[in-house]
Amino acid sequence: MADETITASPDGGTAWRRFALVALPGLAAAGILGAMTTQGLLAASFAVSGDHFKISAAKLDGTGFAQYGDVATSVDDTSRPVGLSVIEEAELTDMCMSALVDLPIGTATVLINAGEETPVTATNMVVDVEQLEGNASFSAIEIGRDASTLNKVSGPQGEPGGFALQSDTVVIDDLTMVAWAVNSGTLRLSGLKLNVKPGTHECF
To answer: Which InterPro entries does the annotation name (predicted)?
Structure first.
């Protein structure tokens, strides 16, 4: 994805129309973040930890996708613009997730790997995405739809008058993503491997 700066509009709001068009290919891959939760469908909004995490996958196949601009807020009331992305059903092949944690003995990396032979599957994903790169294709895509009228997903809706996009399907190859939070309805991690390693060992 091109290196674009998210600018503020004169009245202090985020330029969501420009942001959505720039972020379109990457934000469709939100389903991959299902690897971050195993507790069913959570609330659509919660205080994030303040640290982002990284995801990579050889391929994402998704059915039912929508995206619109939103805000992620940390427990210290720090807020940041994100692309809130919703995907009904997703399959992720050869997935890696990494998060850095600060410990008394120094920095460590939490690594989750799954889906090398049988894809990771997830439903009803709601993801706060900051950045993503990959090769994406969509079917029956609608760009510029009002965020309060989305009908290809059963997740949360945006504000009336807000810019949004949605599509029937999405496929992304060679996915890399930076995100702040995720909610998931159901999740199945085949071939799960979890490691905690001293130092920095991120997926990308």
So the answer is: DUF6230
pTM of the model: 0.72
Q: Provide the residue-wise pLDDT of the chain in tens; the chain has 204 residues.
A: 444 434 444 444 444 444 444 344 334 333 333 333 333 333 334 455 668 899 999 999 999 999 999 988 888 888 888 898 889 999 999 999 999 999 999 999 999 999 999 999 999 988 889 998 999 999 999 999 999 999 999 877 899 999 999 999 999 999 998 998 877 888 899 999 999 999 999 999
Domain range list for the chain:
16-49+57-96+114-154+164-186
| Helix residue ranges per DSSP H, the chain | 16-27
Strand duo 120-139 + 79-103: pairing? antiparallel
